[in-house]
Amino acid sequence: MRKYYALLLTASAIVVAAVIVFVGSANDSGSAAPTQSAANATSLPPGDPSICPSSSAAPDASQMIAALKAKLDKDPSDTQTMTALGTAFFASEQYDKAEALFVRALRLRPGDPEASLQLAMVYHAGGNDAKAKALIRRVLKKNPRSQKAHNDLAGIYFDEGNIAQARAEWKKAAAIDP
Hints:
By secondary structure, this protein is mainly alpha-helical. The protein has a single domain, classed as Alpha Horseshoe (Serine Threonine Protein Phosphatase 5, Tetratricopeptide repeat). It is 66% helix and 0% strand. The chain has 8 helices and no strands. The longest helix has 22 residues, at 2-23. It is globular and about 45 Å long.
């Protein structure tokens, strides 16, 4: 089941990194993306990953990590990029690097729920479920309606074989946003 979470977080990391790196970085004109003509705005560029999934135009994890590192080097206090880079490292199973970035983000933004939940998943992947659950419970104490926190806690309970507790957390998550 830990591999399931790794795959789920890999997909999340790629989406987050792509949004931050490719949409969030401004070009010379200050806009988030180059302008296109109205006729060309809906067509996909050649090599787009949705057309050619194996295309070299599709960024791989190492390219995303390199781009996020470069962005973080420009602004070392950017906790959003820090968290995205930590997520990319987690997805690449570089848990020590991921942990360091999430801890750093939490020093800059204590109690940040996203960094806290991501750090909890690093602890879970490393087998420290007690520490992971404690972190998730802190998030839930501040925000009992955090669907992600309930889902993450359910996943840990499920991996531990505590199906009843996992089911209870999944029900809480579903009640928040079915």
